[in-house]
């Protein structure tokens, strides 16, 4: 079984050079700083930068904070708040006009459990969206993920996740299947402070005004400011 997963991760990495030459492949970059008090509370801040082509034609950025309280080791709740901006998908970086600019607040519940060497996590998020043009919106999100270490020291791990996003229009009964995101990645712990993830994300988009794009190369950097051990797979709060 271990050889199968190692072989699969190798295939993923070997596929990257082919994907990089695809004009439809965008980039999904994130930087995450996390601080944990060693007891119940943790705080993270994250910056994301996305492009519709490989490291050019940037059209999206966001920054957010995540305050988390851990009830028990496998169950935690979070309050998420941030600013999200999407630009027109022209040939220039951050090309005007802006398609959407919004402030979001969200309540989130995270649940983890282990099945043998596999770690399965569930994330439930209820978010309220406030657009600068005066519109309001509600979105419900559910993500299920699985990860497994690829070495005895658990420095490298393979992960996969699938997230479903359902949009609810404010003031009406209209419910729309907004997006679906499938993500496969390999995370490497570089030190007790730094971890890095490379991956591929495929997104179904209902063609709403925000966050366009279908296929992304994913690069994420995680900085553990509390200097705690990072022996688990990290996931970007998308």
Question: What can you tell me about this protein's structure?
Answer:
The protein has 238 residues and is mainly β. The chain has one domain: Porin (Beta Barrel), CATH 2.40.160. It contains 1 helix and 11 strands; from the N terminus they run αβββββββββββ. The protein has one helix at residues 2-20, and strands at residues 25-36, 41-53, 56-72, 75-88, 95-115, 118-131, 136-149, 156-169, 175-189, 194-205, 215-224. An 11-stranded mixed β-barrel has the order 1-2-3-4-5-6-7-8-9-10-11. Strand 3 and strand 4 form a beta hairpin.
CATH class descriptor: Mainly Beta
Low-confidence blocks of residues: 229-233
> Helical percent range?
under 10%
How many helices?
Answer: 1
Shape: globular
Number of domains: 1
* Oligomeric status: single chain
Determine the N-to-C terminus distance: 30 Å
What is the CATH H-level superfamily? monomeric porin ompg
Question: What is the tally of beta strands?
Answer: 11
Mind summarizing the main beta sheet?
11 strands, mixed, barrel
Order of helices and strands: HEEEEEEEEEEE
């Amino acid at each position: 079984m271990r050889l199968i997963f190692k072989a699969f991760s190798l295939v993923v990495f070997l596929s990257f050079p082919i994907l990089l030459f695809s004009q439809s492949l965008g980039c999904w970059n994130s930087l995450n700083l996390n601080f944990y008090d060693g007891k119940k509370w943790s705080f993270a801040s994250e910056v994301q930068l996305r492009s519709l082509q490989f490291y050019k034609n940037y059209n999206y950025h966001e920054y957010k904070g995540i305050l988390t309280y851990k009830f028990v080791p496998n169950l935690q709740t979070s309050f998420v708040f941030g600013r999200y901006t999407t630009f027109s998908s022209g040939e220039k970086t951050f090309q005007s006009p802006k398609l959407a600019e919004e402030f979001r607040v969200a309540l989130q519940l995270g649940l983890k459990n282990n099945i043998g060497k596999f770690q399965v996590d569930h994330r439930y998020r209820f978010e309220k969206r406030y657009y600068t043009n005066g519109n309001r919106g509600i979105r419900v999100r559910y993500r299920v993920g699985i990860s497994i270490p690829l070495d005895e020291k658990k420095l490298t791990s393979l992960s996969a996740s699938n997230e479903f996003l359902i949009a609810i229009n404010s003031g009406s009964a209209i419910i729309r299947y907004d997006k679906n995101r499938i993500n496969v990645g390999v995370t490497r712990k570089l030190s007790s402070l730094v971890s890095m993830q490379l991956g591929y994300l495929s997104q179904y988009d209902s063609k709403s005004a925000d966050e366009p794009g279908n296929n992304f190369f994913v690069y994420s950097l995680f900085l553990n400011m509390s200097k705690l051990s990072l022996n688990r797979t990290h996931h970007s709060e998308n």
